[in-house]
Structure formats: C-alpha cells, structure tokens
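Subject: Protein record for review, amino acid sequence with backbone structure tokens
Why sent: The fold of this protein is of interest and is recorded here as tokens.
Notation: Tokens come from a learned vocabulary of local backbone shapes, not from coordinates.
Attached in line: The record itself begins immediately under this heading.
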Amino acid sequence: MSEPTVGLPNAETPEVRPESAEQRPSPEQAQAESGVARERAAEDVSEERDESRDAAVEAGAAAERRAKRAEIVRPPDEVGVKIERALEDNLWDVYVGLPDPFRTTFKTMGEDTARLIRAQLVRAHVHASKIHALVHKWLKKIPGVNWAFLLQESKIKTDVFLRLAQWIASKSQ
C-alpha cells in the first residue's frame, strides 16, 4: 500500500492557487466593496426593524380589537342574573374584606365562572360534578378560606344551579 503524499492535490481536496497581482482588488476597490456590503447589511437590518415594527403594530391593533369586543356590554338576561345572584349569595362580607387588587381579580374570575356555568346549564345533560368543580375552584381563590365553608358553599350553590337547570328545561318545553 502506498501512503498518500501530503501537499499533492487529489479528488477530495480542491487545488488552491495563489492569486496574481492583477486578480487582487486594489485597496480602494476593497474599501468600496466593503462599504457597499456594510450599506446592504444596514439596509437589511432596517428592513427587519420595519417588519418587526409592522408586526408589533398589527399585534397592538389586534389587541385593541379584542379589548373593544370585551367592552361590549350585553344586557343581562334572566338566567345570567340568576347565576350571578346565586354565586354572590352569602359572599358579600368575604368580598368586602378582600384587598382592592384581589377584589377586581376575584370579580372577573366570578364572571368567567358564571359564563362557564351558564354554558353547562343550557346543555341537554347537565353535569353536577362539573358545576361543582367550577364553583369550588372559584371559591378556593379566596385567601384563608375554611375548607368546610368551601365545601358547604360549593354544594349549596351547585344545588341552586341544578334547580335552575330544571327551571330552564321546563321553560324551554
């Protein structure tokens, strides 16, 4: 076996030839070419910034549209009012005792819970366990709540919602 010789070109390594003086760019040409390359890179960066700015503007506009949709106040219907009243029952003292920032959070979570309960109540088959879980989860957000109070209130409110579901079913027939 013959050993490969170092420095000889073969099929795997390309042949490197030194550039002649005529092929090398002059220092002025090299500077001009690097300046053009820098300008192109700066243009690319500015285009990327413009694109990211446009994306941010579009995202902001979408957020504003969502906020406007959320601000639309729908008149409360009879079922919605009954659901909210059932959730509020026996909780006024607890609600007043909450700190202000948490009070608004608790209120929005209660509104979301009422919306989810309404969705459960209008179904053909009402799942008491799902309604109980929604109420229980919402009441657990109260800081320092007694577990016995939590279970008792969630059970009472679930029973109220089940009676409301029967009322809705009889009303629709």
